[in-house]
Amino acid sequence: MTPLGEILRDEIRRDGPISFARFMDAALYHPEFGYYRRVRDPFGIRGDFYTAEQLQPVFGILIAEQIRRLRTSMGDVEEFTVVELGAGRGEMAGALSEFRYVPVEMGSRLPEGIRGVVFSNEFFDSLPVHVAVMHGGAARELRVGFAGEWFTWVEAGSAPEEVECYRRTYLGPLTEGRVFEAGLEALKWLDRISAALESGYVFSIDYGYTAKELVRFPSGTLMSYRRHQALKDVLKDPGEQDITAHVCFSALEGYGNQVGLERVALKPLARTLVEAGEADQFARALEAGSPGEEQQRRLQLKQLLFGMGETFWTLIERRQVRE
């Protein structure tokens, strides 16, 4: 058993089954044993997964162009700032170096009075979620217990009111036996973003769904990643594998609107990248110093447009200048 597994096992034995949000938060962000707190790099060929940010420089060039367009739409903004949530290894820092660039990680505070863009790539999918199942027309919470030598799912009582409210507001009626996640932590981050953003945009890239598409996930969307394999057992080896949940864009959009963020666009990542590169026919993105580098950039562009670009979404929300 992993060191974090021992900590969570003892907590469950002492206090009873814990919420999955508690389990996921510890598995990813425990200060000593959390997956994202370890020394080992989770990204790339020697890690457990890739993100679009590893496809450099093409991804960075196209995202920077999209952000330039957002800056232009704001007019002559002094101290235009790009805040990146979950910057990780800082792979976007070079691409965004023409702007005032501020990386923000989990547990860090957002700068105040932002005029510019709050950007994220695969940030919201890594935030802890609550899990519930529909029984008798109401949500019942699924908590994490421990039996024998394994962490197990335990159906507890009625889901907390905030989980049921999330379900009613953003997901609507669900069929008997359907498992769903409530991204309450994502909504808290929108609160923080809205409070910090004086004017500008929230530019979020992630994989996810709208409420109408939830029918595709009768067992929920939780998934673990380890050594480039997707695994359904998210309770195994806490701290040693990534855990993600698809992002509910209906919730991000709906709650964003409540806190003053107006939707500008929700579209596939591929379309966002095409729009960013169409002015010069991707010349800047593909410009290279050698034939080998040019080929590498073309492969990156292909993967972005026809791989990730078809499964990831872009949500752009705007805050007007505060009165």
Summarize the helices and strands and which ones pair or pack.
Layout (H helix, E strand, L loop, with lengths): L2 H13 L2 E2 H10 L28 H16 L7 E5 L14 E5 L9 E8 L8 E6 L2 E10 L2 E9 L2 H11 L7 E4 L1 H13 E13 L13 E4 L2 E3 L10 E3 L2 E2 H10 L3 E7 H9 L5 H4 L4 H21 E8 L4
Parallel strand pairs: 2-3, 2-4, 4-9, 9-13
Antiparallel strand pairs: 1-6, 5-6, 5-8, 6-7, 9-15, 10-11, 10-12, 14-15
Helix pairs in contact: 3-7, 5-6, 7-9
What CATH first level would be assigned? Alpha Beta
Largest beta sheet, briefly?
Answer: 7 strands, mixed
Q: Helicity level, as a percent range?
A: 25-40%
Sketch the topology as an H/E string, one letter per element: HEHHEEEEEEHEHEEEEEHEHHHE
**CATH architecture type:** 3-Layer(aba) Sandwich
Low-confidence stretches: none
Evaluate the radius of gyration. Answer: 20 Å
User: Roughly what fraction of the amino acids lie in strands?
Assistant: 25-35%
